[in-house]
Structures are given as structure tokens and as C-alpha cells.
Amino acid sequence: MRSHSLAFAILMGLALPSHAHGTDAHVGKTQAVTKEQKPWGIAGDRKRVKRTVEIRMLDTMRFEPDTIDIRQGETLRLVVRNTGGVLHELVIGTKQELDEHAALMAKFPNMEHDEPYMSHVAPGKTGELVWDFNRAGNFSFACLIPGHYEAGMIGKINVRPARSAAVSDSFATVAFAPEGNLTNGEVRKIDKSTKKVTIRHDEIKNLGMPAMTMVFEVKDAAALDQLKPGDKVRFEAEQSGTAIVVTHIEVVH
């Protein structure tokens, strides 16, 4: 859920960020989660959790354990404990997705993102995420904070095929047709105190940014007065130093 700003503080930074993902170091803090099918699964339902796995984050740039074996269709509650003295995170994905996420973090160190398959955890704190591994395959989890990924802070997730494939492919998604220089998206959260808005968006072509859920600064705080969570919007965003700023946003009626 905080900035992969100093840290996918989106996807990798140089100073300790205030990240934004899922439960982010607050076990028991729940939020509405959009279920979007990914190659490595989909956001899970807590009522379907049959197993809890605890993963420790170490300042030696390692996870313990660093391998998890799962049966396809199993919904896991991952409890992530940061036992070190610096910020760490856990992001699930394919090797390619994690490589791209890390590269984007290096390019935009002050970006913030908010996805249910990642958790940012401050030193001495605990985070968690619930994930339905409804796709078989070999995936990874990693800390994408600058330097941590390169140092080998990566784990493996092996999802064995289910004996009977009766997995639903239904998921919620946002799909809009691009228009002009505007990017389509859906408002998730609004924070007027920090002049920030969380948007689940399509590809932002002028920034070379893939579709994801991001936390943006807004150039004009008054623009937030017209928005509410759930609004479908079109917006323009530009890089300003190491931050990504929404310079124009409009609600799609």
C-alpha cells in the first residue's frame, strides 16, 4: 500500500520511503481490494485461508524461509516480519515482472504504489497479505528497495498443479479506451492532507509506466474536491524531479 518513494518508496528508491501497499505493517488493517487476475494468482478472501506462512525479513538481504511450496487453488495468509533495522518489502510476481518493477523503482524513486500482492514493512513491524494462488507455476517474491533486490533478497514460490482444475478465472478489472494524451483509471483513495490520490490506471505511455495502482501527487489540490473513491477518470501525469505528479484529471461520466 507509502512511497516505493524513498524505497512497485513505486517500485525502488534510495532513502527510507513511506510506502503504500495492502496492509503495510499493520496486521488487522483491512482495505477493499480489487481482485485482478495475475499470472501468479489473485487477491484472496480471508474466509478461504487454510494456512498461514510467516516470512522473516533480514538485514542480511535474505528472507526466511526463502522457498514456499503451495498447491494450486490454495489461499495463503503471508505474515511478513521485519526483524532488521531498515525498511524492507515483499512483492510477489514473475521474474520478468519483478525485474521490470525494480527498474521502474530505480527510474521513479519517489513513486508510490498500492497492490494486494505486496507489503512494505518498517523495522520491527509486521505486515501481511492474503493471496489466492490459482495459477500453477514457479514464481518469486522479492524486496525491490534499491540495493536489496541486487543483493539477492529474493525467494521462490512453487505452485503445484491442482489435482482437479476447477479454478475460476473471474476477476474485476477496469478497461477503458485511451483518448488523446489522457490515461484512463479508477480512483482508489484520496488524501487531501498530503495532496495525493491513489489511482488504478492503464499504461502511462509518456512515462513508460505499465498499468498498475499508484499513489500520485496532484499539482492542484483543488482537483481532489471533485473526486471520490470509485470514480472513473482520465488524467495526465508528468515526472517532476523524482515524483510523479497529476497535472490534469477529469471524471468520466
Task: Give a summary of the structure in a few sentences.
This protein has one helix at residues 95-107; strands at 42-43, 51-58, 62-64, 67-71, 74-82, 88-93, 112-113, 118-121, 126-133, 137-142, 154-160, 183-191, 196-201, 212-218, 232-240, 243-251. Strand 2 and strand 3 form a beta hairpin. The protein is 5% helix and 40% strand.
Tags for this model:
single chain; 253 residues; mainly beta; Immunoglobulin-like; OB fold (Dihydrolipoamide Acetyltransferase, E2P); 2 domains; five-stranded mixed beta sheet; globular; disordered N terminus
Q: How many domains would you count in the coordinates?
A: 2
Helix content: under 10%
Query: Which stretches of 5+ consecutive residues score pLDDT under 50?
Result: 1-30, 164-179
CATH third-level topology of the largest domain: Immunoglobulin-like
CATH superfamily of the largest domain: Cupredoxins -  blue copper proteins
- Which descriptor suits the 3D outline? globular
Strand order across the largest sheet: 1-9-5-2-3
How many β-strand stretches? 16
How far the N terminus sits from the C terminus, by CA atoms, comes to 28 Å
- The appropriate CATH architecture of the largest domain is Sandwich
CATH first level of the largest domain: which class?
A: Mainly Beta
**How many alpha or pi helices?**
1
The residue-averaged pLDDT reads 80
Question: What is the strand content?
Answer: 35-45%
Protein structure class: mainly beta
Largest sheet: 5 strands, mixed
Order of helices and strands: EEEEEEHEEEEEEEEEE
The value of Rg in angstroms is 18 Å
